Amino acid sequence: MLLAININNTQIKVGGYDGTDLLVDWRIATDLNKTDDEYAMILRGLFQYAGLEFPAVESAAISSVVPPLTEVFERLCSRYFGVAPLVVGPGVRTGMRILYEHPKEVGADRICNAIAVYEKHGGPAIVVDFGTATTFTAVSAEGDFLGGAIAPGIGISVDALAEHTAQLPRVELSKPKTVIGRSTVTAMQAGIIFGFVGQVEEIVRRIRTELGGHAVTVATGGWAELIVDDCRCFDHLDPLLTLEGLRIIDERNRTADVTRPAPS
User: Model pTM?
Assistant: First the structure.
């Protein structure tokens, strides 16, 4: 089994693959204070609940935007699974050209998303990842990573609004029935959620124009389900897109058949 681990600022997504089949997937809260042993015990409990044992893991692949935890999970994979994980980064074969001014600046999760969306839907394509940050990733018709846009995530926006205003509370993120809020809480919910809908639709519209017309657009990330039903721009919702990209990258690095050159 391949253990795919996507480490983000808020959550860690873990998926177990048998070939191309996703057997299990879990979400763990990101905690910089936890050690490799502590994360291993969390995983042991999840494995046991699914009827699996650690020896089932034959390989591992990691994408991370939290460098301190990259090392933690590398040690975890070595100590508890007996494998050296593939860590997505410079020098790893992706089969995709990264047409960024500074390719090393691109988050590993965005590369995984781009590879997965092109593999599943072709190009041109756009991925909107609703995580701690909201990232927009554009892929060309030829399968090149072009770049995109990065905006504050919906969770960060809620926290900032409560932190920097004296009379506004921290509200639960749920969609109100109307955009005209009749209380402070529903007014904040309307402004935050429908404001994000407008932001997403406008950025996607502009990216599509720059790509030359229609581009298949996929939503992913922890906050996607809260927003996607009110956006007219999405063709697909794929919460596990990043894990699929990790699986594809791992596969390409275990075979010699990479059809496109690795990024320099």
Answer: 0.88
